[in-house]
# Entry
Amino acid sequence: MVFKNKEKNMNIVSVIISILLSCFSTIVMSYVALATPIGPWIAPTLVFIALLCSRLCVGVATSSIAYVVSAGSIGGILATACAFSFPTIYFLDPMLFSEWMKSPFFFMSMLGAFSFLAGIFGFFIADMSERVLIDQQNLSFPVGQLIHKMISVQNQIRKAYELMAGFCGAVLFSLLQGGKLLSYAIIPKTIILLPSIQFLIFSLPRIVINLDTAPMVWAIGFVTGHVIALPLAVGALANIFLVNPLQRTFFMHLSSMEFTLAFCSGIVLFITLMSIIGMPQQLINGIKNGFVHYGDKKNDLKKFFHPKATVLATCIAAALIVFLSYFKFPWYVQLYLIVCSAITTYQIAAIAGRIGLALLGRFATFVMVPAMLIFNVNYVQMVFIATFVEMSGGVAADILFGRKLAQLSEFSRATMRQYQLLGLVVTSLTIGAVFWLLINHFGLGSPELFAYRAQSRQLLIQATQFDYIVLFLGALFGCLLQQMRLNPMLVLGGLLMPIDMSLGLVIGGLLAYCASDKEEWYPFWSGIFAGNSISMLVRALF
# Structure
């Protein structure tokens, strides 16, 4: 079934729902991306919520769901990209980051402005690439197709009720753990499964289940269990039976933490090397392909150099230059960032159009590493470079998912663009406050806010400071993992993350394997995931 939208203007009720979904996705994905090593697309969850709204609210047509979901999903990808790289500043220079945190207005306005600049840069690249990638190359953009199918199937309302059941259950579970409404806890916040055990050179850490975050972790594990369960289990076991014994047997002059960080840095170096080796050719092919299609029609090239597009590009570049100048970026580094970000943003969107995945970290590393080696940039500038690439690339991919949805549903792309711009503005206004609240309450590096991806980027930046022999051993282990067809980055998560977090994700993955039709349970677990995330943020506020 295809919905044909006859309206050309934004509906006030749909605008309100778009704003609420943008805030919701920003909140949820900020916490999830800071607490776990993955950032799942939140758009499918937003579909179920929007379907409920269409039944409960007057003035919300089913055909408007595509618009509000596309507006809301931008908050999810922007928050995810920011969480993957921006907290690296804390791990590299905690004193500077703490100074920023002491001034909430500065922190919120700085992060909000940076998010908007990166987002509007990705928005502009998406606008310029839309005709080539969607109309001429006709890329599938799988997430856009998935959302189109979800909206078109009429029995999805039952799944929306299942999502609400999971959401309410997670909120009730959190309330029963005590707080403002209950004077005592009915459900404990932690359960100790096993005490720490020492046997010869092997050490089994104490295994604790944090019930306040467990529902969310189980839900993420269930939805992505086929991807993360095995690598995380391998990482946790390798920490117990390989990394710790190696340190105690051959590297006693290094502390356990120093050895683990050096070993993990070796894995990160291997991943980076493997990612970079084939990337130049991939970029060249992508650029050639784009130019070939632009050359098919002279109107495409005229659109690219249209006066309005030129003015917009100039304004974006000028605003970005002002922001980067505040953080003392040399002019040649600014030029390097703008040019490389334009190229990689297009490539991220093109790859996402083919496989449905936005390879944010890989391209961010590809731009950041040469800047580290060629230019005299400090830690803050390195992180801003990586974060900008991830944000702009993620937004461009998400924008084009929405445009593909508009094409499939025969909706107005101009109206879709307006809703997406609204989502970007709302996210930019709220993301700084969300990050400040989360970090201020939980603390970066804590079990609740481990910021695994940011710590991984820290290991890459500081790799030269570690023991080279241990670095080599880590790289060798990464090579072995690749030969075994295990994702080294996810195994790295099992090595670095607290054991209770890895265990929770593995448990969720095992639950998915036990389900006869796990996709039928996705709405319920998505509701749990959303409910527990919101409950955690409410605790941070109160």
Q: What stands out?
A: Confidence is low (pLDDT under 50) at residues 1-7, 294-298. Residues 190-274+452-526 form one domain. The longest helix spans residues 104-136. The first strand starts at residue 190 and ends at 194.
